[in-house]
User: Fold this.
Amino acid sequence: MHFLSILGLAAMAVGQLTSSSLEKHVDSVTLSNTPFAVSPDGKSAYLAYLDSSETGVHVQPIDPTTFAATGDLVTISGGKEAGGLVAHNDGFAILTNEALSGVTDPVAVLYRYTNGKETFKTYLGGPDVDQGQAMMSPDMNGDLVFSEKAGYYAAYIVVTAYQGDATGHFGDAIRYIDTTGKLTNIAGASSSWGCSHNTGIAFEAADEAPFASLCAEDQGAIWLNTKTQGMTSDGVKVSNEHVINGGANEAMGGMSGSYSVLARFIGADSYIFSWVSRGAKDLTANEWMGSGYTTSKNRTNNRNVAIALFSDKNTLVGDQATSEVGAADGDKQVNWMTSGTNDCSNAHAAAFDSSKALVTWEEISNPICDFDAMGCKGTFAGTKFQM
Assistant:
């Protein structure tokens, strides 16, 4: 479960909040990721965050009814950033990154804690994970999910090669770990270099591998890549995006995003995906990539919120984004949730049941967007929610 999994419980608590009951501590600490998760039985919850010294990741048990801290704080002293978090009835699993001997930058690692004690620790990068390549994760961009039915944790993470043919470039990797902590290579599900350069990740569990996944890349599109684990043109193109090298409008949240943007409807095989986009028009051929790949121009200066539905982990509901060179309209298939001039960011999605979901995002007014295919600055205009 992800940070929005608690929405059903939170609804009651929110009704009791007033401006006088909230304490504000502006700029007291800088946090990029603060993952939150609720256990399957609903009796416990966990909040993970980075220490202000940036030398350790803390995981605090939380009462899911009162939101008060309970129990003993768990500290992962070597953690550099809190990544994905999965809550269990007897503990939690957390994705983080930490220094590894002989590696300049930290690598991704999965910890499992049971009743406050470390059960296993599994490196997801480093010198012995990928044949011919060695991967690090200087920024903990990605997500962690768990399927009890499949019997696997899975992490979809941005990686940078520090050894091998791709040294200095960044892409992504999908890692599967069984419940004993064994890193397992699953044909047709695991990957070591899928979308390059990866600029956004969406990931959610399924009943069997491969799990549902999407990626944003800097060649011009967002792909549903459950089957391909990459950005090949035989994948499902969800959206055309105007991009630059290393940038794609921070569609899934930028460097501190790529979590809780894809949600599975409860008790169903269907999914909902949320992202922000400037739209796409005037498609031209991406000659460097070849047939099936296009580049586009922005339709708007600001970003709006969009959603896509999938009937299962492989199938988009409705039309794919066009790959027709010369098409004036590259976004006619998009389901827009907003259409104004405010700039939208940090879109997230959560499912309530088999048919209802909540999408949330933030807005700024009078946006100034100085950098191509990046975010904007402006006056904060609020956090929005839509069922």
